[in-house]
Amino acid sequence: MKHLVTVSTLETNEILEILDSAENYRTNKQGWKPEEKMFVANLFFEASTRTRCSFEMAEQQLGLTTIPFEVTTSSVQKGETLYDTIETLASIGVQSVVIRHPQDRYYEALQEKVSIPIINAGDGCGQHPTQCLLDLLTIRQEFGSFKGLKVAIVGDLRHSRVARSNAEMLTKLGATVYFAGPEEWKDEENRHGTYLDIDEAIETVDVVMLLRIQFERHEENTSELAQNYHSRFGLTVERERKMKSHSIILHPAPVNRGVEIADELVECERSRIFKQMQNGVYIRMAVLARALQPIERGLNNDNNYQ
Ligand code: CP
């Protein structure tokens, strides 16, 4: 079954296949669309604009039927478990579920039990596979490949699922990853990069990947740190001037304007922030196709747990 719950289990060739498939959808070349009706449901237990809406757009573009599901008006409110929710949807004909959930690795206990593929739309501070893939697509469109590229991931590293997924994949694909940000938000467990001073990082790299401050995941009071954040660790106009001439800016968004990045830089020439969002639709089309194509061909139980 073609779950996509983490990027860690994806082989390099699979990553490249997903990027190629997304690129084919983007350029209107041939891509999979189901011949008969297929059904998906999007289960968002945390807030989302980009991921949810771009999954919905991807589903529409593929001709899939999206079964409406709202956590707040569902039987989750009566205590129904995630497993029972998924199997209920499966039993009425849903063929894949897209899930965002606040619990890290919520999928671990589920992936070998459920009867339909899970696409992870973000788990707590864990992983955000489709964000990672759309970031990779955006970088590849710009530079052609990943080998030898230098990428700085900047900010709230400890609480960021985007940082975790991206650092691992970029390293796997041959890029060098640097981290920069406040001492308090260092991620000591992430071994896929080395820490640099923010100014050195900005001047060194080809891609400056900014992270949103994840206020909702902070256990301690971080308002003081956030107040001084822009001048100490943010992409100020002065820092942007010191970037290499060809370097680009990424941010998964939503953006805290004037905090992680100066307001006037969000849509500057180097910024690919809205391009990332466009690419999100094509990546999600590719990921949905990867999950659903085997089902259409009657190959749902090949034990290919990912
Ligand atoms: N980048 C991202 O995951 O945005 P949303 O939380 O709006 O989905």
UniProtKB/TrEMBL annotation:
UniProt pathway annotation: Pyrimidine metabolism; UMP biosynthesis via de novo pathway; (S)-dihydroorotate from bicarbonate: step 2/3
Known EC number: 2.1.3.2
Superkingdom in the source lineage: Bacteria
Keyword Cytoplasm among record annotations: no
Catalyzed chemical reaction(s): carbamoyl phosphate + L-aspartate = N-carbamoyl-L-aspartate + phosphate + H(+)
Alphabetical list of InterPro entries matching this protein: Asp/Orn_carbamoyltranf_P-bd, Asp/Orn_carbamoylTrfase, Asp/Orn_carbamoylTrfase_sf, Asp_carbamoyltransf, Asp_carbamoyltransf_Asp/Orn-bd
KW Transferase (keyword) present: yes
A GO-annotated cellular component: cytosol
Gene3D superfamilies linked to this entry: Aspartate/ornithine carbamoyltransferase
A GO BP annotation: 'de novo' UMP biosynthetic process
A Pfam family hit: OTCace_N
Entry's Gene Ontology molecular function annotations: amino acid binding; aspartate carbamoyltransferase activity
Function in brief: Catalyzes the condensation of carbamoyl phosphate and aspartate to form carbamoyl aspartate and inorganic phosphate, the committed step in the de novo pyrimidine nucleotide biosynthesis pathway.
Assembly behavior: Heterododecamer (2C3:3R2) of six catalytic PyrB chains organized as two trimers (C3), and six regulatory PyrI chains organized as three dimers (R2).
Protein name stated in the entry: Aspartate carbamoyltransferase
Gene behind this protein: pyrB
